[in-house]
Each structure stands twice: as structure tokens, then as C-alpha cells.
Design goal:
Blueprint lengths: L2 H6 L5 H22 L15 H32 L3 H32 L2 H6 L11 H4 L17 H21 L16 H11 L13 H19 L1 H9 L1 H17 L6 H26 L7 H14 L1 H11 L6 H22 L5 H6 L12 H10 L1
Helix pairs in contact: 2-3, 2-12, 2-13, 2-14, 2-15, 3-7, 3-9, 3-12, 4-7, 4-13, 4-14, 7-9, 8-9, 8-12, 9-10, 11-12, 13-15, 14-15
């Protein structure tokens, strides 16, 4: 391969892949919090999690969902450079539409059924099952996809939204890729420019809430994460801007964490507009910090890297089933609330990984349904790692 072709060949960035892994596995943390939330399942012991656990859930939920869209926008540049036209559309169908359909078939009926047998799960998971509870799951299953009152796609909203963003941004991204990039130096001040549109949309959307529903329940919420998607592409396209972000990581991190702590301490005294404004600034600053720290400390691969990278979509699609099913039993254990939360977290993650390792990963047809390549992805060789290091 000549040098010109090598320069145009997209490469994977370990730091971006590590962030994607972290973002998806973070779903376990705060969705387990939901099980112990304001409406715990009937028969639960205790009155909810300690405040520090709720604080962790609040902190993560405010910036890790926007981070997912930022990473997705970042990845679009390489995808568009590697594929054009119909090939790019096929890749998006393979990675988003097929896994979404698989997730609906696999998780929708069970989540809706759990909402019927325990009404507290309806509000937690965004479903709205109607009618009396069925005698059994098999009685309920035939009507699950035909009853308009049953709605329980839950966390799967992320996939169709990413597809919509991909289609909406396609002309703009394609146009940007055709423009010549001139070398320039960007001031660190521009790192904070996205705060302007983000704070406006956040104020329109209302105060940030714990959970993901605030990002798709209003047009402002959809626009909010769409801006993150656009910014991700721009960061990937202009390396000078990405370098400025990396240089500002520590300052942005201090600002973001300080604002989040202030929001938690001053919740009762802040107006909704002030709360929303602070939340938008804190979320962007934390995203800047995470990008910078990932580039500095996670720009390498390990023996588990390829394994975890492949697991992202299957884990995302399936993870909520063990959390909800095991949560029905674990919340009733006569032990402390914190040990129950840790037990739910560990057992649900272990069940999900067993499902991925022993079923999805080993059968080619299941790999396709979950958005994975039919053949196992080989671990990155030492030559690949040297090539990546030399070209960064």
C-alpha cells in the first residue's frame, strides 16, 4: 500500500472505542438505579438507594448519553471515507436497523409483560401497557405487537434516532468531507463555543433529569443530542480542534465536576432555567474532559479490547432483561439496599456477558442479528498497533 492510500485509509482509534465501550456498559449502573427508584417493585425492602448512589446515577445520566452521540458523530467521518453511496447505507442498516428489530422482538414483549405483572415498572421503563394483567407470558405474547396500548421499546430508542441523525446529516457531512482542510491552530476558547447552542436547547428542554427520557421526549431534547452528533463529526474532521480539546481536558473537567456538585447542593435554590444552563455547561465540559483523558490514557489496546469492542451492540440490546428480571427478586432480599444494588449490578452484568459469550458470539446467524460481523473479529496484531502509533 502506498503512502497516499495509507493516508486515506480510515483507522480505528482505541481511545474512541474504549469510550464507546464505557458508555454502553454504563447503562448497567444507572438502569440498576432505576429498579430501586421512586417506584420500586412491589415487596421491595427499604426505601431506596443511598443518596451517593443516586448522585452517581444523576451525574452519569447527564453526560454519558450525549457522549454516545458525540462518539457516533465522530465515527461517521471514517465510515463515509471508507464507504460511499449504497454501501454506506447498507452498513447503517446492518449496524442499526437489524439490531433494532432484533431488540424489539427479544426485549419488547418481556419488558411490557413485566410492566403488567408489576405496575411500578411501567413508569421506570417508559412503557404504557394497558388492560388487565395476563395469566401467563404465553397468553400475552400473541397480542404484544398488535395491541396499540403496548409500548415498551425502552432503551432501544437510541438506534432509530442514530439512523435518523445519519440520514439528516448525510448531505452536510459529505459536503464537509469534500472541502480541503487547511492547517490551522485553534484557540482553546473555541473549545467552549458549543456551550452556546447547547445551553439554549437545554433551557428550552427544561432542567436535566436523571435518565434518558429527557433527550427524546421533546424536539429540543432531540436537537440537543443532534448538536452533539454534529460536533463529534467536526472534531473528527478537524484535528486542530481535537488537539485543542485534548489540551483543555483538565480545565474542562474541573469546571464540569464543580458545576455538577453545585447543582446537587443548590437544587432547591436554583431556578429551572439556571439549573438547565448549568447542566448544559457541565455536560459539555465533562465530555471535553473525557475525550482528553481517553486520548492520553486509553490510546492503546489490550487482550480484552477486541472482545469488548465486539460486545457493544449485543450488550446494549440485551442488558435490560437481566436487570429487570433479576431485580424483581433481588429487591425483596432482606439485606441492605446497597448490597442489593451491587448484587443486581454484578448478576445482571454476568448474565448479559454469559448470553453474549456463549450464544451470540459463537453463532454466525446470531452475530448478524446483533449487528456483528459474521466471523469473529481478530485481535489487533502488533503490526496494527505499530501502524496506528506511527500514523497518529
Amino acid at each position: 500500500m502506498n503512502q497516499q492510500a495509507a493516508a486515506l485509509t480510515p483507522i480505528r482509534r482505541p481511545d474512541i472505542d474504549w469510550l464507546r465501550i464505557f458508555a454502553v456498559y454504563s447503562f448497567f449502573i444507572f438502569q440498576a438505579v432505576w429498579v430501586f427508584g421512586a417506584g420500586p417493585p412491589q415487596g421491595a425492602k427499604g426505601s431506596g438507594l443511598p443518596e451517593y448512589v443516586n448522585g452517581i446515577g444523576f451525574y452519569l445520566s447527564q453526560w454519558y448519553v450525549p457522549l454516545i452521540f458525540l462518539i457516533s458523530g465522530w465515527s461517521r467521518k471514517n465510515s463515509l471515507q471508507q464507504r460511499a453511496g449504497i454501501d454506506s447505507m447498507k452498513e447503517r442498516m446492518y449496524r442499526l436497523v437489524i439490531p433494532f428489530a432484533t431488540g424489539c422482538i427479544l426485549t419488547w414483549p418481556l419488558i411490557a409483560y413485566l410492566g403488567l405483572i408489576d405496575r411500578s415498572y411501567i413508569g421506570i421503563q417508559g412503557g404504557r401497557p394497558g388492560g388487565p394483567g395476563p395469566r401467563s407470558y404465553l397468553d400475552f405474547l400473541p397480542d404484544c405487537f398488535t395491541n396499540p396500548c403496548v409500548h415498551a421499546w425502552s432503551h432501544l430508542w437510541l438506534l432509530p434516532m442514530l439512523l435518523a441523525f445519519t440520514l439528516l446529516s448525510w448531505p452536510f457531512f459529505s459536503w464537509m468531507l469534500k472541502k480541503k482542510v487547511t492547517p490551522l491552530k485553534i484557540s482553546r476558547v473555541w473549545v467552549y463555543f458549543p456551550i452556546i447552542p447547547l445551553s439554549f436547547l437545554q433551557a428550552w428542554m427544561g432542567p436535566p433529569r436523571s435518565g434518558t427520557e429527557g433527550f427524546f421526549s421533546t424536539w429540543a431534547g432531540v436537537a440537543y443530542v443532534f448538536v452533539y452528533f454534529i460536533i463529534g463529526f467536526m472534531v473528527s474532521r478537524y484535528s486542530a480542534y481535537e488537539r485543542a480539546i485534548h489540551q483543555e481536558a483538565w480545565h474542562a473537567g474541573i469546571i464540569g465536576v464543580s458545576l455538577f456538585l453545585s447543582m446537587k447542593m443548590l437544587t432547591s435554590s436554583l431556578t429551572p432555567q439556571a439549573f438547565a444552563f448549568m447542566g448544559s455547561i457541565a455536560s459539555w465540559c465533562c465530555a471535553v474532559a473525557v475525550l482528553g483523558f481517553a486520548k492520553r490514557y486509553l490510546d492503546h489496546t489490550t487482550g480484552w479490547f477486541s472482545y469488548l469492542r465486539e460486545s457493544v451492540l449485543p450488550v446494549y440490546i440485551f442488558h435490560q432483561i437481566p436487570i429487570l428480571v433479576l431485580g424483581l427478586f433481588i429487591v425483596r432480599f432482606d439485606i441492605g439496599v446497597s448490597p442489593r444494588y451491587v448484587l443486581l449490578l454484578v448478576s445482571s452484568m454476568g448474565t448479559t456477558m454469559a448470553f453474549y459469550h456463549f450464544l451470540v458470539r459463537r453463532f454466525p446467524f446470531l452475530r448478524v442479528f446483533f449487528g456483528m460481523k459474521p466471523g469473529k473479529e481478530p485481535a489487533e496484531s502488533w503490526k496494527d498497533q505499530v501502524l496506528h502509533r506511527d500514523r497518529c
